[in-house]
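User: Could you check the structure of this?
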Amino acid sequence: MTATWGYDAPPSDLSGFTIYMEGEPVADIKDPAARTYTGEIPERDGKTCYTIDAYDAAGGRSPQSPCYYLDPVPGSPGNFRIEMIVDVTVAPPK
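Assistant: Sure, the predicted structure tokens are below.
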């Protein structure tokens, strides 16, 4: 899977991003300058929700993005590209 994302005016303490599949983390990107992730994501049958959030050094996280649904046609190739837009309003840790 390749996921690309963008956002406006990132906070100076941004540390990275997490990609989720059905609410479970499947990729952690520890580069605050990253705008692309390419890597292996576990396969699922049927329509699947992917989200992404941003986090800061203190452990605060932005809200997760809206679901980006992937519903591959049976027999389709196994690589997909998902584009996401992230709201990076990072909340202080609780």
